[in-house]
Design a protein that fits this description.
This is Transcriptional regulator. By secondary structure, this protein is mostly helical. The protein is about 60% helix and about 0% strand. It is built from 5 helices and no strands. It has helices at about 5-10, 15-25, 30-40, 45-55, 70-85. It is globular, with a radius of gyration of 13 Å.
Amino acid sequence: MISYRLKSARTKAKLTQEKLGVMAGIDESTARSRVSQYENGTYSPNFDTMCHFARVLNVPECYFYILDDEFAEKVLALYHASKAPSA
C-alpha cells in the first residue's frame, strides 16, 4: 500500500483520521491511531480494510497500490469520469 495516498485521499475528502476509521468500520476507540499508523507506513492494513477506505473515500481500490504516481492519478481521473452522470 502507498501510505501517503491514503492521507491525500482522506484530506481531499475533508475527513479526520478518526472519522475515516469509524466510517470504514474500525472501532471508534482505536480509529484515529490505526489510520495514523497506516498513513505513516508504520503498519499496512489488510486488503479488506483498504476496500472499506476506498469505498468511503470514493477512489478505486487499486489507487492505493499503483507504484507510479502519474498513472495512479490517471486511474483516479478515469474512475471519477466513469462515475459521472451521463448527459
